[in-house]
Amino acid sequence: MTAVVLSEIYPPAIGGSGEFLHNVYARLQGIDVVVSTEPAEEEPADVPPHLRIVRENIHADAWGLASPSALIHHVRRAAQIRRTSRGPSTVVHCARALPEGVDAWMARMSGGAPYVCWAHGEDIASARTSREFDWLNRRVLQGASAVVANSRNTAAMARACGVRASKVVVVYPGVDVERFRPGVPGADHVRARLAGADVPLLLTVGRLQRRKGHDLTLEAVAVLRDLGYRLRYVIVGDGADRDRLVQMVKTLELDETVVFTGAVPAEDLPLYYAAADVFCHPNRVDGADIEGFGIVFLEAAASGLPVIGGNSGGVPEAIAAGETGVLVDGASVEDLAAAIRRLISDGRGMGLAGRARVVRDFSWERAAATVADVHRRIVRDHGVE
What we know:
By secondary structure, the chain is α/β, with parallel strands linked by helices. The chain has helices at residues 16-25, 68-84, 97-109, 122-127, 131-143, 152-160, 187-194, 214-226, 242-251, 269-275, 295-302, 315-318, 333-346, 348-361, 364-382; strands spanning 2-6, 32-37, 51-55, 90-94, 115-119, 146-149, 168-170, 201-205, 232-236, 258-262, 278-281, 307-310, 325-328.
């Protein structure tokens, strides 16, 4: 059996979706994997023997079909996919409906292999902002032999696009609990550099974009400072919202409290989690932008941290509210400030419970096994030869 994986984003390119795919398909048992992705100067260090990465120009400047250049691109990609998926028991696995799924959909309509399409939540919401993209997204999802959703919330969004419930499978992200754990060697040095031993360290990890709620956290930290709480807020990541957030820090006079690290190497992320006391990511819905699940909540929990997340999207599935962390209103500074104050004072028990839950329920091996079962079911149902 062979899984042909289509993804514009794949390691070493930075992106949570690419890491997600690599962690799943690198663990697939009994299925050969060919990943078609963009060129890169190096390859991931942990590529197993059953996985082969093909670097080729798959990026589409335009995602729809209305543009002649986009249509030509998708027709060419569809022909290429038909050629590379002729092997026995081959199924195409698409990172997203748009743009990768369009190529697989067109290939399937012209005699190509059946395909699976991943859905992440924000991709479906984003497609709804365009009549063309919404139509195309629905056609691709409905034409898939299976839709793999990263949460029950995303699964409901896929069903709302007309996908039969029997075709939708929920596969939660996993976490490497040996990599993300308390007491990672070197974490003490990171802690000493950022906050010192006696100042609570609040951490956020992720792209700097409005829906993540960094701005709300800055306001909440300012409220706590005015109440006499000493904190260090460390923001790991970079993105389009950085300039606005930097200006907020100046306006709120938090220069001595907030640290922007920028993007950090993937191998260093466990050090930051292990150095922190509380993880904070009060996401909210921002137009069409939502948090489909939030793997960072699992990484933080695996590291022994109590977590704070916004009560929207798939986040209520990543956090066991009241057990491993707190869900807050992503628009309420007061709600968030109260949650931070609570967890920096008494969050250790939630941190321990969070790690136990991740170890028990969120392994990459479980995710990979479910995807392998989906692949085999499609091969059986379609009689792919």
